[in-house]
Please model this.
Amino acid sequence: MLKSESRTAYLCLAPSIIGLVFLTYLPLISVCVLGFFRWGKGAPTPIFIGFDNYRRLFTTDPYFIDSLKVTLTFSVLAVVMSMAYSLFIAMLLNRKVKGRMLFRAIFYLPYVLPAMAVYIGWSWLYESNFGLFNYILSSVGLPKLRFIADSSLVVPSLALIAVWLAGNLIVIFLAGLQNVPKVYHDAAEIDGANGWQRFIHITVPCMTPIIFYNLLMSLITNMQIVTPALALTNGGPGNASTFITYLMYRYAFVSNQLGYAGAISFVFFVIIALVTALLFATSRSWIFYEG
Amino acid sequence: MKRRVLLTVLLCTLLAVVLPAAGTKEAAAAEKVKITYSFWGTPDEGAAVQKVADRFNASQERIVVEIMAIPHDTYVTKLNTLATARNLPDCGIMSEAGVLQFAENGLLHDITDMYGVGDARPLDSLVFRYQGKPVAYSAANEVLLMFYNKDMFDKAGVPYPPTDAKNAWSWDEFVHNAKLLTLDANGNNATSRAFNPNAIVQYGCMVENLTWQLEVWALSNGGGFYTADGSKVIINEAAALDAIQKVADLHLVHHVAPLSTGLTDDGIQRSLIAGTCAMSTNGAWNVGTSLASARAEGLNYGVGVLPYMKEKVTICTGGPNVVFSQTKNPKEAMEWVKWYMQEENSWELIETGIWMPILDKWYTDEALTRKWVENPNFPPYDDYKKAVVDYAREYSRSTSWYYVNNTNDFNTLLGSLLGEVWTGRKTAKNAIEGGYTQLVSAFKGEL
Model:
């Protein structure tokens, strides 16, 4: 009986296992191996070069270190802002307000819009000379801002788009909020706790597993950001929006340095793995699992 | 039973008639040399090129050409993959910046023999050379020009930009006229004391600052990105630095141009077509692409030659056709490419103004020039003849990717260095001198 059950289980798992092996693990190993070769530009067939690609990354590459900084800055900004925004909106949507379903749909909508359309739309808003935001700034007598054309503003500007796109986080937070036992709030209210105290001492602790999940997913997604660089900024101005994934794409498919792009991918994989491990390691001290 | 016998006899007769005929056809096809030509575009565009190839196929008995359509965005990647698999097509179109890289990797065939003695040849500025030998010819000629909005000029009472290069505006004249055309919300132009640079509603000009197009200003100022033989990077010399700074100062100092970071290839759309600028520099192909539809929607535009700093010059480029070295039939591939590059076979692109012809005769024989220019999308013949046809023949120089390798990496790095120049955080001198060592590495293919 058990054997038959196991067989069925393996059979059902097979598609996922095959997918994981061939679409995730084998490519990962290949990328790691590829990082030890020069292949593409100047080398039509792969040539083994040991750790040269990795050495070049941290010594002579004019983009990599900047790219790493930009990616981390963007991720931190986008994650912090979108977590705060999503939790705030989710709490508003959790109240019994009129047209609640409509508001939920409105806030979720950006997440399902086609990415290119979203970024092109935002490019019109951000346009440095005649964009809508600058039109509004000019009409109230404020100086124009260069948004995505200024190296110090481009990352915050793109992070703002990421926040606007965080509809999925709102939905997950909302689900979490609905699972916070009402009885805790009632008890606290009887004890005289105000709204802020209830939020800090009841809502937040009960929500920590959801916060952890959203934090992790949001961090990984934002670290792998590439679309705004492709659609809006081409990595500029300067290197100010050359995110690592974009740099990887540029080396692999524009400059045709497949081995080198493989090395970047592997280093980036290690960075994401470390960040994830760090989050998991610290999670034990701040996640509250009920019961 | 009778019916079965009858059917069998009929079937045998049919086979007896059809099989030998099929055999003959197969034998004939087997004798023909099959050539694959790769082309960037959608399957529909591929089908259109296949129709042209079918005309070639019908015109002779020895060669059959088949078109391989590859999406533009993944074109070079796909070719690189095919090269690695040693499975490149026989010939195809290439990106300009990729030609010498492919040649250096030994992937292109020497096409010195493509044109014989006495053949009408493409303009010399359209030949890609590697180690002195031609490895590609551009399928089209494209030069940089000045497009302008006639209505804005008329309203400001400013004379149109010259069409004859002999009368081309100097840079200072250009800036002065751009100031007259730059207006703030109160209608003051940029020469007026009351002009408010924070409330500009119309700019005088936009000089396209995509890195490859910037080269023309370095040349115009008596310098360049590289020496004339392509052996050394000289973008750090005063002539090039000064030229790039002058382009940046149009926005930063003179307030006559909008801020543009040189990252997106839509300058004409953002300036002339959007109605935000009176003049805009860009490539001749716009006559047949964005400007054609804008004119149909009411844009009254004209074309003139570029202003100059020290030398009157424009640069030319055009998607090149190559024969790949992995082909087993280089002669047949060259024969097809040569046939395909005749203007008659890409006439649709030429008569709409997207491509300019590559053979010299179209620039010198008035009947041919008129055949090319007197078509609906074009500005008036006299204007286009002087500002484009004569200008392209007498003043154009090859963009550096015709004779310098690794321009892709160089231009990407340069674009990244110049990002802070357009916003005024750095001067061209600081940005380029700071990145010069890396620019040289990019030039050498070490990035």
Summary: The beta strands of chain A are 37-40, 43-48. The mean pLDDT of chain A is 90.
